[in-house]
Automatic annotation (TrEMBL), chain A:
Keywords: 4Fe-4S, Heme, Iron, Iron-sulfur, Metal-binding, Oxidoreductase. It comes from the Bacteria. Signal peptide: none annotated. Residues 58-117, 353-403 form the Nitrite/Sulfite reductase ferredoxin-like domain. One of its GO terms (molecular function) is metal ion binding. InterPro entries: NIR_SIR_4Fe-4S, NiRdtase/SiRdtase_haem-b_fer, Nit/Sulf_reduc_fer-like_dom_sf, NO2/SO3_Rdtase_4Fe4S_dom, NO2/SO3_Rdtase_4Fe4S_sf. It comes from Gluconobacter kanchanaburiensis NBRC 103587. The keyword Oxidoreductase applies. Residues 125-279, 418-553 form the Nitrite/sulphite reductase 4Fe-4S domain. This is Sulfite reductase.
Amino acid sequence: MSVPVGHYQYDRIDRDFLQARIAEFEGQVKRRLDGTLSEDEFKPLRLMNGLYLQLHAYMLRVAIPYGILDSRQLRKLGQIARRYDRDYGHFTTRQNIQFNWIRLEDTPDILRELAEVDMHAIQTSGNCIRNVTADEYAGAAADELVDPRVHAEILRQWSTLHPEFTFLPRKFKIAISGSPNDRVAARFHDIGILARPGEDGAPVFRIFVGGGLGRTPVIGEELFDSVREEHLLATLEAILRVYNAHGRRDNIYKARIKILVQAIGVEAYREAVEAELGQMDLEQYRLTPEAVEAIRARFAVPLLEAPDDADAVLTQQRRDDPLFDRWVRSNTHVHRDPGHIIATISLKPAGGIPGDATSAQIERLADLADAYSFGEIRITHLQNVVLGHVRKDRLRDLWLGLSEVGLAEANIGLIGDIVACPGLDYCALANARSIPIAQKLGARFADTALQAEIGALRINISGCINACGHHHAGHIGLLGVDKRGEEFFQLTVGGRAENGAAIGTILGAALPEDETVDAIARVVDCYLGRRESGETFLDTLTRLGHEPFREAAYEAV
Amino acid sequence: MKRPVRLEAGQKLVLTANRLLDGRTVWWSAEGTWVPHIGHALLLDAEEAQVQLAHATEQAQHDGVVGVYDTAVQDSVPPEPVTVREKIRAHGPTVHPEFAVETAQ
Ligand code: HEM
Ligand code: SF4
């Protein structure tokens, strides 16, 4: 079999390991069903295999390392949705996919089907190093300095089943990007890594620690500015050792690394890491250029050939078709190759469920990936899908193909591109439903011309303080709260996950569910009425401060 | 520790859990079985509920359910849970009408 474009090629050892792991879990499921294992004993075991119990069914979270899939894998996910779920898959902000209607009995079979295409659900839950996320335009974007996938894969191998880090004080999330434009929310992760070329050509890494959302949102602080490639693993190992030794295990709300970094300060943390490095056998963790090359060789490089007039063809097609032009404006990004372009496919149809795709859509995406992008698909941390390498002269055909299955929404980065967690419709921890608010907002701002007029504006919705919908990082954020069994929403404005990361400011008392959409519409109207030319929502907010927006939100209350 | 239950006028308690095999929401019925429709749930006073809860929890493994607890409902036909959360458990997600729990006959 040829090496897949975009992700790492598994070998025998990887595959044997997965089979052994499935057999082990199958035994555990059997023992749970016959009562040998109690629920208390079984729960941590199923979570280690990505299986949660939600409100109506089990939920299976499947890992998509650094968010990249090949078409064969995507097709398999579509089949699983059809066969074992209710015909849907849900793409998440962690670049994973979740199935919401899974039966415990079926799980070993599902895991076996996943293993057929080198996929699994390990390390998608529990207090371990979770799936490493990476820039969704990796290896494609014109603004990229270093392709982060090779190092993401190195981190995946280093962190997978790392014996010391299987029982950390709490879950641990790492994101890596190689572009000066942060597309991974690096400063909202336990560790955020930004790669750039060093003086000798080998990459160096800027490392942030202690970022996170949840109950206590914190912006990560810079621990090191330029870690050399050979010391990357040693440095990460040392950061985790310090956390493992000193992170709090007595209080789940204070267990994340962000609390430790806040408690002792980033300078003290740095000293502790340096002290740890001082006594480690650095040789053992040295990442040699040969080791990096060996990993790089397991990624196929797409052969980027395009006719000379590819760009001219696209320009003409955009001129001829305003609808297509609008989609190109919002849903594409500049590729490093002048004949190619990056296409982002919105999973946010107006009035739809953010991140949901039917099995038919999933399979169609796999076909389109084969036809237009070397069979490679990326899942974004904003719950969309990317085809990384589309020839410019074929972009319109792709767009037409997407239109046939309702996937041609032109709203990436606009107000319709809403991020929402599953919320109270599915999630056992939720206070309020996230999806219906997203649907109502999506319907309210359905007009793509209006969306383009409003410009860059991100709405993020979480159904509880765990912040899976990144509400703190939304330009407008909504947090579901429970008041005596009823749903309310707290509004924040001014959050951002991109460069210049900021945590949103709470506007005021939480609003009842049925007043929330109107309040947001008034906030948007306030911006439209008062913006100066060229300003985005965040610009106007920065210039005017929160007060006008607060007044607008609470005007009718 | 179990929180004390404060029922308002016109409210009763029902027992609920999730089925071990498939995670489906189930309700404790007058026949002493777990059923998928809240329409068949047994309505209990606060004191009866404590007795039944202890019993059902003990029997959970045998009955193939997990996470048994009680929750308040309006004493109506069919009974309607008081909180949004339990309404959604009883009727299914609000965002996919086709996934709703069919009404009990
Ligand atoms: C439906 C089942 C889910 C459960 C039970 C769940 C549970 C949790 C919990 C308990 C936390 C807080 C952890 C902490 O602060 O220590 C958390 C955080 C998080 N979850 Fe989920 N989650 C679920 C679904 C999702 C989904 C669907 C996504 C993606 C859309 C997601 C993405 C995240 C992210 C990004 C965080 C990190 C926030 C942070 O940095 O603290 N989760 N989740
Ligand atoms: S934010 Fe809360 S409601 Fe939403 S998925 Fe996470 S835990 Fe569930």
